[in-house]
Amino acid sequence: QVQLVESGGGLVQAGGSLRLSCAASGRTFSNYVMGWFRRAPGKEREFVARIDWSNGMSVYADYVKGRFIISRDNAKSTVYLQMNSLTPDDTAVYYCATGRRGATYDYWGQGTQVTVSS
Description:
- Helix content is about 0%, strand content about 55%.
- With about 120 residues, it is mainly β.
């Protein structure tokens, strides 16, 4: 049974930083990617970033490029999202998800709330 557990959310002032973690368990993650998504109040879920477990290649949504950094620690089966220069528009529930490279994400975490005050 695959489990994804996010942590690290909280309340931060605009301009501040947070680091989210997603601890994964339940299978070997080679040939899989890990993604971060978010859902803001009243909005659709949107893609934030993803990273390939095996080669570390990463992709970012345009609105987080230069501010967010996704990384992984294969030994700990944990993916991180370092979020810098946060703005109130970044307020959302952040979810991690995993799936085979090139396929849909088939496992999701429970989400962690990030609130950025102005």
